[in-house]
Amino acid sequence: MSQRDDGRALDVVLRPVPRTVLPPVRRALLIVNPASRRGARWLEPATAELRRHGVTVDVGLTRGPGDAAELARTETADGSYDAVFTLGGDGTAIEVVGALRQTDIPVGVLPGGTGNLLARALGTPMGIRRAVRALLAGDVTRIDLGRLADGRYFAIGVGFGIDARMIANASPRWKRRLGILAYIITGMMAVLRRTPCEVHITTDGVSYTRRASAVLVANIGTLLNGLVTLGPGIGAADGVLNICLFDPTSLWDALRITRKLVMRDFRPDPAMAYYHGTSITLASTPLQAAQADGELLGAFPVHVVAEPSAGCIIVPRRGLI
Fold first, then answer.
1. Which residues, other chains included, contact 185 with Cβ-Cβ below 8 Å and sequence gap of 6+?
2. Peptide bond into 286 cis (omega under 30)
3. Residues 273-302: pLDDT tens digits?
4. Among the listed residues 117, 77, 70, the one whose alpha carbon sits nearest the alpha carbon of residue 98
5. 221 vs 80: CA distance, rounded Å
6. Do 30 and 119 reside in the same domain of the chain?
7. Fewer CB atoms inside 10 A, N or C side of the chain?
8. Torsion from C-alpha of 21, 321, 162, 270, nearest 10 degrees
9. Taking the model in full, what pTM does it have?
C-alpha cells in the first residue's frame, strides 16, 4: 500500500478494468478534424482500412471547437452506428467520448494529432492502418471521466505548471514538423525554468497546501505507451481522480523524479506527493494557466468531479488499459 503525503495509506487499489469483446462493426461514423496534424492526410487510409474490413463508413468533418461533440450527438441519435471513431488530436477525441458518455456507443481513438496522449495511453499503434486493425479486433471497456466546472470533460488529466507551459510553448510550426518531440523539447525547457507556486487543494472537503512546480489531476495513470507511470494505484476505472504534485528544485531532482516515474518507484520522496478524491478544487498563488488533455484552459482555479465509468471506449486487445 503506497503512502500519501499526510502519512496515511492510499486506499485506492488498482484493479483490472472489465472488458468485453467488441462486436463486429458493420457501420461506423468517423469524425475527423482536418486541421489536426495528420487528420486530413490520414483520412483516406483510415477509411480505406475500415472498408477493407467490411465497415461502411460515414465521415463527419469538424470546423472548430465543439463540432466533434455535436456531430457525435446528432449523427448517432438514431442508433444506426455500431461504433464511432475519431481522427484528430486529443481535443477531438475527448469531445466525442464526453458527448457519448453514459451511452453504449463505443469510441475508437485513432492517432491523428500531435501528442495523441489518449491513444498512446490506451496502447493504440501510432500507424493509422495498424491502429484501425487493432481497434476493430479490440475490446470494449468503460473508463472514468473527469468533468470540469464548465461542463467539459477530460480522460487523461488536468494540470498546471510545467505541463501547461509545455503545451503553451509548443508552436504550431514545431508541432507540424516535430510531432510529440515538440512537447518534449518545450517540456525540458519548462523544467529548467521551473516556477514553483503555492498550490491550494481541496479534495472531498479536506484542504491541503503544498509548493509544486507541476500539478496533475490524473484519471489515467500512464503516458507515452506505458513508458511513464504518474503515481501509485492510478486506475482508469477506480472511481476517483488522483492528484500528483511534483516539485523539483534542481535538475538532479527533475532527473530523479523522471527515473522514478519510469521505474514505477513511488517510495516517499520530498519532491513528490499524492492525494485523491471525487470532487477536487485546485488553486494556486500566483494563478497558473491550466490544461486539460492537452487543451489550454486559462488561468483560474480548477474544479473537477469524477464521473465513474462514464466513457465507453475501444481498446486494443493487448492495450494498456
1. 170, 174, 178
2. yes
3. 999 999 999 998 888 888 888 888 877 789
4. 70
5. 34
6. yes
7. N
8. 160
9. 0.87
